Amino acid sequence: ETVKRKIAYYICMEFSRAGTPHFHALLGSLEWTRYSEWTKWWFTNYGYARFKVYDPKKGATHYLTKYVVKDNYQSGWYDIQGLQYMDQSAFDTKNK
Fold first, then answer.
1. Looking at per-residue confidence, does 27 or 87 come out higher?
2. Would you say 77 and 67 are in contact if contact means Cβ atoms under 8 Å apart?
3. pLDDT, greater one: 65 or 90
4. For position 90, what pLDDT does the model report?
5. For 15-52, how does the pLDDT look when each residue is reduced to its tens digit (9 = 90+)?
């Protein structure tokens, strides 16, 4: 029996120096699946990807901050409540 489950995500697209688009994603709510099954499914449906297992000691900010504060952060798709309403200046620590 197939069970559909929602996953939480934040995906951001950026361009390499050569101008090729690529994506960074933080995926959540995957406790119910095995890492090997998830990567196999992704490769079958979308092709090559490099995955890193989330380290709770580093926290989500370690993974997200670089992409959220970039000028193109608004091009991301998100399922993080309230993130679409955050202004980039909220992360400006230079003047604080």
1. 27
2. no
3. 65
4. 41
5. 888 988 888 888 877 777 788 887 888 889 888 888 88
Domain boundaries, the chain: 8-91
> Are 25 and 95 within 8 A, CB to CB?
no
- Whether residue 35 contacts residue 51, with contact meaning beta carbons closer than 8 Å, is answered with yes
pTM of the model: 0.53
Write a three-state SS string for the chain: CCCCCCCEEEEEEEECCCCCEEEEEEEECCCCCCHHHHHHHHHHHHCCCCCCCCCCCCCHHHHHHHHHCCCCHHHCEECCCCHHHCCHHHHCCCCC
What lies within 8 Å, CB to CB, of 79 at 6+ separation is 7, 8, 9, 10
Structural tokens at position 43: 């490769």
Report how far residue 78's alpha carbon sits from residue 25's, in angstroms, rounded to the nearest whole number.
10
